[in-house]
Amino acid sequence: MNTSHSAPIGIFDSGIGGLTVAKAVMKALPGEDIIYFGDTARVPYGIKSEETVRMYALQITRFLLEKGVKMILIACNTVSASAKEEIIQAAGDVPVLDVITAGTQAAIGFDNHSRIGVIGTLATVNSKAYERSIHEIEPQADVIQQACPLLVPLAEEGWVDNEIAKQTLSIYLKPFESKKIDSLILGCTHYPLFKEVIPEVLQDSDTIIIDSADSIALTSKQRLSELDLLNQNGGKFQCFVSDRPQRFQELAERFLGRDLTDVSVIGLN
Amino acid sequence: MNTSHSAPIGIFDSGIGGLTVAKAVMKALPGEDIIYFGDTARVPYGIKSEETVRMYALQITRFLLEKGVKMILIACNTVSASAKEEIIQAAGDVPVLDVITAGTQAAIGFDNHSRIGVIGTLATVNSKAYERSIHEIEPQADVIQQACPLLVPLAEEGWVDNEIAKQTLSIYLKPFESKKIDSLILGCTHYPLFKEVIPEVLQDSDTIIIDSADSIALTSKQRLSELDLLNQNGGKFQCFVSDRPQRFQELAERFLGRDLTDVSVIGLN
To answer: CA nearest B10: which of B199, B246, B241, B238?
Structure first.
């Protein structure tokens, strides 16, 4: 375990979507150094087999450990669903947090949340990882899941509040209409970009929208504090990607809300 | 060069979209054996850098050559745009055809086609490969390109003729409204799935829709005939993928129009 306060926090995702997590961590922990890895050469993980996702996730975990991180945040829902246990094992003493557990705990944290909606990619929904994670804490909770494969490309196209986005959300959120849900977990790092439009489409102002980027940022702050590993004197953000795709800079700004300056391309095997 | 009539035709794509090409080849050349490679572990190529796309394409080319193919069809527009020359060089005596050249020749083949529309992925459009390919034959032609990043995910969701598909196409095809185009090249192997709806959205019955899957199938028949390499006695279809994603079977049927039976998963490096 890296017990140095000044060691960085490692965050990774299949691509750039996890930058919404990095952004939330920067806000909650402005004094921490962050190393981000986005597997842009192999994105998206959501359509790949569990074996492949596990192999990729372990390669990235080793990379972050070599960089001396004091904590690893799995910012990718697909990886959280398929490879969390393997990463925890590979990380040894280094604490590992994941967006699914963080989102689940946030949803359960509100009173009377017995009916929880989850939206995510096909892989996340098919893995039933949110369902398992929720039932571990709240076995009686009613979990209603819905895959929304078009939301990621819509977010990357920048169509997050036009008519097409609203109609697409109307179709995907239809199953929640008849079953009044208490909270809706945004189970994909791209989905916070639809945070303004979702309540409008849901037409239910009582439903609490759970943004797991915010949830994991708060959990990491809590854990670092418990471990006495908080850093007040950093603030550097280093970004590694496995490929620099076209429109990378444009997309990164959309997700991070600011320019990316320190970006290196690095291959993993 | 493999001069055996009974040698298979190799077809490859970044994923399963190229199955529209395989389908067209089966129709045009029912007596040929076909080996298809879909790089489902690393799809989509369209958002990756040219260097990465070239590296992947050469790995697949080597794989097909080891299988003893007598001809290689590049069914992927991104690869045709970024790596055609490298593949031709690597293939030596084995003839290589690509969807961009085939689509271009089909578009030019019609009389008075001086104004040609092209729709494709961001990578294909940014590469300007169709523009270059058209201008090589018809330097005076007016080429109007439009990237349509949402069409691939829409096709994979099966939303090819609903209101969302029509509205999305309306936005993407708007640039062609004011400029009357003679033909429109479907510059992505997924796009033939929208072949019914595009004329309706275009509102111009004179525009000829060029499906490059059909074009490359006809060109390959012509070339094999010239080389005296046609086979009448085969008909086997063997499919290799680098990963078997969820919903693979369902998607494959949608693209191929029939069940896939002989599928092997194989890793490439």
So the answer is: B238
- On the question of pLDDT at A190 being above 70, the answer is yes
When pLDDT is averaged across residues B15-33 and rounded to a whole number, the result is 95
Q: Does A153 touch chain B (CB under 8 A)?
A: yes
Q: What is the pLDDT of residue B257?
A: 83
For an interface test with B, which of A52, A173, A190 has the most B Cβ atoms less than 10 Å from its Cβ? A52
- Asked if the domains at A9-98+214-265 and A101-212 fall in one CATH topology, the answer is yes
- Candidate from A154, A164, A245 with C-beta closest to B47: A245
A92 phi and psi angles, rounded to 5 deg: 60, -120
The per-residue pLDDT for range A9-50, each reduced to its tens digit, is: 999 999 999 999 999 999 999 999 999 999 988 888 877 788
Q: Does the annotation count A76 as an active-site position?
A: yes
Domain ranges, ordered by start, for chain A: 9-98+214-265, 101-212
- Sole residue written with tokens 């961009």: B100
Distance CA B77, CA B49 (A): 14
Choose the closest CB to B122 out of A154, A243, A247: A247
Average pLDDT over residues B192-200: 93
Distance CA A67, CA A10 (A): 9
Instruction: Judge: A126–B246 Cβ closer than 8 Å, yes or no.
Output: yes
Would an 8 Å CB–CB cutoff place B20 in contact with chain A? no
CB A22 within 8 A of CB A56: no
Minimum Cα–Cα distance from B269: chain A residue: A269
Strand order of the β-sheet with B263-265 is B96-98, B71-74, B9-13, B34-38, B237-241, B263-265
Whether residue A43 and residue B43 make contact (CB cut-off 8 A), yes or no, is no
Q: How far is B100 from B173, CA to CA, in rounded Å? A: 20
Contact B147, B122 (CB under 8 A): yes
Search chain B and give the residue with CA nearest A127.
B246
Give the Cβ contact number of residue A133 at 10 Å. Answer: 25
Instruction: Give every CB contact of residue A193 below 8 A, 6+ residues apart in sequence.
Output: A20, A155, A160, A254, A255
SS3 state of residue A68: coil
What count of residues does chain A have? Answer: 269
Q: What pLDDT does B219 receive?
A: 96
Please identify among residues 231-250 of chain B the ones whose CB lies closer than 8 Å to any CB of chain A.
243-247
Report the alpha-carbon distance of residue B154 to residue A68 in Å, rounded.
Answer: 42
Catalytic residue among B9, B188, B224, B252: B188
More confidently predicted of A3 and A182: A182
Report the topology of domain A101-212. Rossmann fold (3.40.50)
Nearest CB partner across the interface for B122, out of A42, A48, A246: A246
Domain A9-98+214-265, CATH among 3.30.1330.200, 3.40.50.1860, 3.20.20.80, 1.10.1040.50? 3.40.50.1860
